[in-house]
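Worked example 3. Consider a protein that binds CA2.
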Amino acid sequence: MKILVINGPNINMLGIREPEIYGSKTYSDLVELIKKEADSLGVEVKFFQSNHEGAIVDEIQQAYGKFDGIVINPAAYTHTSVALLDAVKAVGIPTVEVHISDPDTRDEFRKISYIRQACVATVKGKGFDGYIEAMKILVNK
Ligand code: CA2
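Given these inputs, the predicted complex is written out as structure tokens:
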């Protein structure tokens, strides 16, 4: 099984500020954690992080026919991007939305998720472990 793990804008800055919301670990720590768990699940993973909406759309499109699942934390694009929603719908790859924090309990504008309606599940508020849970959801599907 091949899973594409996509992270959106500013996820590469994790661990630098707002540790009370996102923890003190970095994006590299996140990648290492997921790799370790993927190995034990026998899953092949590819990582992609971008601050650019179009680059994320391109990455989702190129996953068509190549990946069995997508784990995505669209970060701020969660709350703004119809383009990401359409991309996930277009490729039809089972996708799980992940958030480190629980955006539904934060600012009003974070309560909207466009991508959610194209996702098989949402995991939120579980820190980095949410990515592992998302991977397991895809494996068990
Ligand atoms: O909780 C999540 O995973 C989010 O997707 C993270 C996004 C935020 O816009 C979403 O509402 C919820 C933010 C990503 C990282 O932002 C940073 C902010 C300060 C310092 C480092 C990263």
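Take a moment to read the result before moving on. The CA atoms of residues 45 and 112 lie 28 Å apart. The helical segments are 19-22, 27-41, 53-62, 82-91, 129-139.
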